[in-house]
Amino acid sequence: MALDRLDIALLTALREHPRAGALELSRRLQVARATVQARLQRLEASGVVTGYGPDVDLEAAGVQLTAFVTLEIAQGALDEVAAELEALPTILEAHMTTGSADVVCKVGASSHADLQETLLELNRSTSVVRSTSVVVLGTVVPPRVLPLLARSAEEREARAPAYRND
């Protein structure tokens, strides 16, 4: 789905004011409430907006360590590995990748011992050939999507033909 400037402004307003209703958003964006409601419905129906849950600071919630773990897996074992990863509550995300690793996981742990137990559990899997882990020391850029979406919308608008009234 191609997003325009109003879509980006709406997503930005939702990010900055997640509890705002359609009326408040329409005031902030200076558009009709029906426009906001229609745009939100379109963004939800197309799968762009996937939820309105709270953002959670894991460190504040007691999860002291984050690590990234790369997995090299046995040929044809992706389904088994996916099921094993889903069963581990410390696996926050897992992505199939290109390169030397087949899967990259983001892991959360309450302690070094908790992280070690997760790594040992991954290495017990008959589907995992090798794992490599790195511990996160700090966050340089937090998770974000709006700058990329805004750039895409601007590029699309710049390519659109300009209509003149002469």
UniProtKB/TrEMBL annotation:
Q: Which UniProt keywords apply?
A: DNA-binding, Transcription, Transcription regulation
Q: Which GO terms describe its molecular function?
A: sequence-specific DNA binding
Tell me where on the tree of life, at the top rank, the source sits. Answer: Bacteria
Keyword field contains Cytoplasm: no
Give the HTH asnC-type domain ranges: 3-64
Q: Per its UniProt record, what Pfam families does this chain match?
A: AsnC_trans_reg (PF01037), HTH_24 (PF13412)
An example GO biological process term is: response to amino acid
GO CC terms in record = cytosol
Name the record gives this protein: DNA-binding Lrp family transcriptional regulator
